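Provenance

Sequences were taken from public entries as deposited. Structures were produced by running a predictor on each sequence independently, with no templates supplied. The record for DUF917 domain-containing protein from Pseudonocardia asaccharolytica DSM 44247 = NBRC 16224 is shown for reference.
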Amino acid sequence: MTTLHIDLGNLPALALGCTVFAGGGGGDPRIGEQMAMEAIREFGPVEIRSLDAFDDDDLIMPCGMIGAPTVMVEKIPNGAEGRAIRETYERMFGRPVTAVMPFEMGGINGVLPVAWAAYAGLPLLDADFMGRAFPELQMLTPHLYGMSGSPAVITDERMQTVVFNTRDNIWLEKLVRNCVASLGGSACGGLYPMSVGQARRPAIAGTVSKAIRMGETIRRGGGDPIDSIVRVAPVVRLGQGKVVDIERRTSGGFVRGSALIEGLGTDKGRLFRLEFQNENLVVLEDGEPLATVPDIITLLDIHTGHGIVTEGTRYGQRIQIVAFPSPPVWTTAEGLRAVGPRAFGYDFDFLSVADRHA
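Predicted structure for DUF917 domain-containing protein:
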């Protein structure tokens, strides 16, 4: 069996793939990519392993950044946060962390754990707990199975570390969000620590390698970027246009806002409205949804096919609006209660993008 690694050759592909599958969220990957690049140069490539490569008792560390993506662009981590989180967990559990895992597959959170894995000399698990990015801490698959996100370890670039043990995951979200806001709007964290055996049920397998394949396909280019993307994952093209207005506000550890996109080409005369809370939540036309969470709504550069994160959306950008089907776990009754349109305050139910545009 071929052993997969993340090295300097495919790290950019991972970062690119993460922007496509993030649904606009997870933060701009550039800072995490640079940190992972330096770590790989110093300590060598990071091995990617599946859950089946570990013993059931092995301890995994799901981790990433928490907070408003707009803040992460300037308030960068110092690089040692992963070690602080790992050492805290090892003291608490009395055994070593065996593997690092991105808790979401999006933006900076898909690549920053690569740096932490390289520094620690640990493999990266080829899985995550979202299959995309979501804005809140109860919006991870273990929550659907009644598993606790505690103990959660939060640390900032000053190496101030706080441990949370809460009564449930809703309280975890509230208390961690307040803490992150006090720390300046973003921080690094470990959530839902568990053994490999416990992770087998909630983990969405293969997401790291899938992001690499997506990035490599787009980077090879040639012709319509959508034709490249569909080779890796099914995608629905919702429209193309120019961003003519963008409104963003950062508060309470989130970036919220909307973008207006004026149709171009065959979509001339159409007007799309994209609404987001860290991640893209819904695309509307004439007040009617074209796609909603938990399907993955992504803006792609019309020329390159590169994904555009919410804090990177700018007036004048020419973009394609596309949607990918949600990982199936999020379209169950439990999943929709956690991340469906009504969970974000919309007064309509989820209908898959595939069914809407069949």
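The CA atoms of residues 97 and 353 lie 39 Å apart.
The chain has two domains: 4-208, 232-356.
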